[in-house]
Design brief:
The protein has five helices and five strands. Strands 1-2-3-5-4 form a five-stranded mixed beta sheet. The protein is α/β, with parallel strands linked by helices and 166 residues long.
Length: 166
């Protein structure tokens, strides 16, 4: 554990949250390193997608509601830490493989990772949107990875990856 902690603390990364703070009462800011043309914002999230793939508005509404519900359980009710920098910025959720420079879904239903600027985000495959029960479960699962990441407790590697997925 001490060696892993040193590795985490010594690893280069962005200095998040230092320069930008939203004006009082203005709500959370939005940012998009992929510069996608479409978005749907909620209180804590922005679902973003490109111009291909025939994304249905009903499916997008369901996905954004699923993420907000997962937040209400994981962050508000269970009092787990919110994803890093989501006190300043709305958390980005990308529909993968949707064109216009959207990230790839790599054949996964969804996944958590860091964007090119080092901020946490989730990518959801377009196929995961059409089954709302599946989208709801995937949203809760992937958001929890962002919560796990915010603790800085352990990396997603070797045996520790099992704990992330369990």
């Amino acid at each position: 554990t001490p060696a892993l902690l040193r590795e985490i603390l010594d690893s280069p990364g962005p200095v998040l949250g230092e320069a930008v703070q939203p004006p009082p009462g203005a709500g959370k800011l939005e940012r998009d390193p992929y510069d996608l043309p479409n978005s749907l914002a909620t209180e804590n999230f922005v679902v973003r997608w490109g111009n291909s793939g025939g994304i249905d508005q009903v499916d997008l509404d369901n996905l954004s509601e699923a993420f907000e519900y997962a937040w209400s359980v994981q962050v508000d009710e269970m009092e787990h830490p919110m994803p890093l920098e989501s006190d300043i910025y709305k958390f980005n959720v990308y529909v993968g493989d949707s064109g216009s420079g959207a990230p790839a879904s790599y054949g996964a239903a969804g996944y958590f990772t860091l964007d090119p600027e080092g901020f946490p985000h989730v990518v959801i495959a377009p196929g995961s949107l059409v089954n709302h029960a599946w989208a709801d479960t995937t949203a809760a699962h992937e958001l929890y990875h962002a919560v796990q990441h915010s603790t800085g407790s352990y990396a997603y590697q070797d045996e520790a990856a099992w704990y992330w997925e369990a």
